């Protein structure tokens, strides 16, 4: 798989007369890789495959690798305006493929130190995408927030990895198990380990970098952030939880409380957002908070539902950012109150907005519904007192999804918006390619269960 990715990367260095084939080659290669992964998962199910002493794939990494390849291909499809405007399109493709390589490496590493290196390497192409193709001068501040938050939070993780090696004389995931004489010290050790993952997800209180990065990023940056980079945090949390199983149980009430209240607060913030991308970004924080609480239940039920939610949220939020970009290209504004009446001008786009908004609020038959039902069940097994908070979160999720849809699509169109803007078929294809797996894979949810 990595070999095919390298071959795709080499195609970017073809002579100039073949330059128009670069985007097509990259798209076809990524789609074919995704289909290979899905075919393997469907026919044989997710199984453990050890490639060598550093690389392996299991039922946790298989779905995320497939999601990485799929979203990356759709990023290229959604960013054809870069090719049309000829704004360093070759460098852009290089960044997408390098980001692909770092993500695949992160999801495949069996060595904790190599996992950390790959985990941090994803920041470099993401930062270049935001700074190079962002919309406004404020993208410099967004890039600064992104780097400071994630790097400062990940330094304690590096310290923790060195302590793991000192404790076990190995850095392999399968041979590490953390013990200390003091329960308090073990809890502190676990907290500094997962702080990097909470910042990447992000958990409420360490989330301020995400809305800034989303608002200033181009459509490709927003899609990769929402669809994949947030999943790195939950993947790392799942991968390391069993190493600190006892400390994880001790920290569960504290972290679950922060996650649940964070979900309510960010959902309320969504109802006051005038910017479409900012609203979708804050909704991602709310969904990831629910996912965090599910992981912290330390149950197979909670972990399986967390994987389902990762895939469902990755597809749904990526599609919403692509739709927001489509609307921005037509109206040149992301303000919710200025882009009214899209139904009268672009009825097909309105239908896609409705379907994806329904998915975002976990309406049937999307994967989100099944994942959220199982998540809520597993979280309530911790404490039934969480039921009112979960109910409020579900209500607010539906409220801001309907608010986003009705405010932008209904009403009288603003005077400055013209129906002359024609959407290319690739715009609709991008959303449909998000929509199909989101709804069809709800028929085969056993693909996303740990074994």
TrEMBL record:
CC annotations in GO: mitochondrial membrane
Protein name as annotated: NADH-ubiquinone oxidoreductase chain 4
Function: Core subunit of the mitochondrial membrane respiratory chain NADH dehydrogenase (Complex I) which catalyzes electron transfer from NADH through the respiratory chain, using ubiquinone as an electron acceptor. Essential for the catalytic activity and assembly of complex I.
Family: Belongs to the complex I subunit 4 family.
Domain NADH:ubiquinone oxidoreductase chain 4 N-terminal span(s) in chain numbering: 1-106
Transmembrane segments: 21-39, 59-79, 91-107, 113-135, 142-165, 219-238, 250-271, 278-297, 303-324, 336-356, 385-406, 427-445
Top enzyme class: translocase
Organism taxonomic ancestry: Eukaryota, Metazoa, Spiralia, Lophotrochozoa, Annelida
EC id: 7.1.1.2
Catalytic activity: a ubiquinone + NADH + 5 H(+)(in) = a ubiquinol + NAD(+) + 4 H(+)(out)
Molecular-function annotations in GO: NADH dehydrogenase (ubiquinone) activity; NADH dehydrogenase activity; ubiquinone binding
Keywords: Electron transport, Membrane, Mitochondrion, NAD, Respiratory chain, Translocase, Transmembrane, Transmembrane helix, Transport, Ubiquinone
Signal peptide, first to last residue: none
Organism: Neoamphitrite affinis
């Amino acid at each position: 798989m990595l070999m095919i990715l390298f071959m795709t990367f080499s195609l970017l260095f073809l002579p100039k007369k073949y330059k128009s084939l670069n985007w097509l080659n990259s798209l076809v290669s990524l789609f074919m890789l995704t289909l290979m992964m899905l075919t393997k998962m469907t026919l044989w199910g997710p199984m453990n495959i050890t490639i060598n002493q550093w690389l392996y794939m299991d039922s946790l990494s298989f779905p995320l690798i497939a999601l990485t390849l799929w979203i990356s291909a759709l990023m290229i499809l959604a960013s054809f305006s870069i090719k049309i405007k000829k704004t360093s399109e070759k460098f852009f493709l290089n960044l997408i493929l390098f980001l692909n390589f770092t993500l695949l490496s992160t999801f495949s590493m069996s060595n904790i130190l190599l996992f950390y290196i790959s985990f941090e390497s994803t920041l470099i192409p993401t930062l270049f995408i935001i700074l190079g193709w962002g919309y406004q001068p404020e993208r410099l501040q967004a890039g600064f927030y992104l780097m400071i938050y994630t790097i400062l939070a990940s330094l304690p993780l590096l310290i923790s990895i060195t302590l793991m090696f000192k404790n076990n004389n190995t850095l392999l995931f399968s041979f590490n198990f953390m013990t200390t004489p003091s329960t308090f010290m073990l809890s502190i050790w676990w907290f500094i380990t997962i702080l990097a993952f909470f910042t990447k997800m992000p958990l409420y209180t360490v989330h301020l970098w995400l809305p800034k990065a989303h608002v200033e990023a181009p459509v490709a940056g927003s899609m990769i952030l929402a669809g994949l980079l947030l999943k790195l945090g939950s993947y790392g949390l799942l991968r390391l939880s069993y190493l600190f199983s006892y400390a994880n149980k001790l920290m569960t009430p504290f972290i679950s409380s922060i996650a649940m209240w964070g979900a309510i607060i960010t959902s309320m913030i969504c109802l006051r957002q005038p910017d479409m991308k900012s609203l979708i970004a804050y909704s991602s924080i709310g969904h990831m908070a629910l996912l965090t609480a599910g992981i912290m239940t330390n149950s197979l039920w909670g972990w399986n539902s967390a994987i389902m939610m990762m895939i469902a949220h990755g597809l749904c939020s990526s599609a919403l950012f692509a739709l927001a970009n489509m609307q921005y290209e037509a109206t040149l504004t992301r303000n919710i109150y200025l882009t009214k009446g899209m139904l009268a001008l672009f009825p097909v786009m309105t239908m896609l907005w409705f379907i994806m908004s329904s998915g975002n609020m976990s309406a049937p038959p999307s994967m989100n519904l099944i994942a959220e039902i199982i998540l809520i069940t597993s979280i309530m097994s911790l404490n039934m007192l969480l039921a009112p908070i979960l109910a409020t979160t579900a209500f607010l999720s539906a409220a801001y999804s309907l608010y986003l849809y009705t405010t932008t699509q209904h009403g009288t169109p603003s005077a400055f918006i013209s129906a002359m803007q024609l959407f290319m078929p690739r715009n609709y294809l991008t959303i449909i390619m998000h929509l199909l797996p989101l709804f069809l894979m709800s028929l085969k949810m056993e693909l996303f269960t740990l074994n």
